[in-house]
Structure prediction request, 491 residues.
Amino acid sequence: MAAVTRGSFTVFRQLLTHQYRCRCFRLQSFRSDRTIRPLSFRWEPSLQVLSSRTLHSSAVNRGPIVSFKLSDIGEGIMEVTVKEWYVKEGDKVSQFDSICEVQSDKASVTITSRYDGVIKKLYYDVDATALVGKPLVDIETESSSEVIQEEDVVETPAMAREEHTHQEIKGHKTQATPAVRRLAMENNIKLSEVVGTGRDGRLLKEDILNFLAKQTGAIIPPTLFLETQTPPSAAARPVRTTAAIKPPPATPKPVFTGKDVTEPLKGFHRAMVKTMTAALKIPHFGYCDEVDLSRLVSLRAELRPLAEGRGVKLSFMPFFIKAASLGLLQFPILNSSLDESCQNITYKASHNIGLAMDTVQGLLVPNVKNVQLLSVFDIAQELNRLQMLGTAGQLGTNELSGGTFTLSNIGSIGGTYAKPVILPPEVAIGALGKIQVLPRFDAGGQVVRAHLMNVSWSADHRIIDGATMSRFSNLWREYLENPASMMLDLK
Prediction:
């Protein structure tokens, strides 16, 4: 019995050596608390081995406390507003885990962790202004973080750690988490074929899902898009469900307390001040017209069930956008930009047509990229995605930047005419009124029901004259009043 006891302690001492622990233990299963629990082991005399599965320890070696600073998020942004924290002090985080969501005057950005460790301090409250280059959180790092990263690939095919988290794409490295790689592998998708929209080109689950949808023609359920933004710590962040994509509730009535209240302009409201101040320095030329959409109403009624059968909600907007793109091919000056010195004009090759959208964050203008290459169904599919992201407050810089021409569907809220303001550096914008059923005379002089919509255009009068704007509007109206004519020019 004494010999057996001595033998067990010999094996026990061997298990406590650093090299043996690194080879046999899954450090991911260690708990982050510092409570040391009694060690338990089982001696199997018949097998003469000590089962390592019964040996547990909650002690994890900690490294230094690192101040995680808010890095430059581009486009000259120096400060942001902290909209939501996904972690709290004491939470354990891993690399690429979401820490918080910040909002600049251009877009909302999710900040992710660069370290494995424990959150020790949050430097800002919600709605506070965070400065680029200043500490955001303090993280007590784990001295064995590199070992933990290697453990991430234990259950996947053998590969180097660099191959697992990075992949060469045209000479540049883009990052992909294990979950993203697994999703791509399950759907037989090569990461080199997918363009990453995350920070520094990182591939996100949303990128894989969008790529899969375009390849198969399938529509991704809204919950999948929302899951791509959900951090691992469910307790630290409210769970978003499909209810989040419902139309926002009516704005609550202000409570008057008898005192004046002053608050600073932040986020998109602050951006609107800058943009509109610059926009109204442009001499605007206005032009209005009336469009008979009776034939388009009948065509949409026929195509709507087919689109819904493919999972896409088909509104009138895809037709308006495609007709505008066809018109821009004939009048490219409306798809241009003018430099600040008014010495050079740039004709844009891509038709990135924006749609002014009323969201919970305010007025945003995401755009559909390369409309000249898309079908009406493709545009409808992309609009569905943008509207879902806008409702959920998840429109990013990629969706909000790069616009070349804008349509504002003010008629979805009400009103027939508007005076839209150009969004610099664009040179033209259109505002669409609501569709009304009104009496009109047909070719035979008989009174008929007509579906009429008013459109109001604004153009930069420094480079666009009234005749050009009028001819473009006439062509756009002809495409919509006789939708069959669009078939001749569709690509």
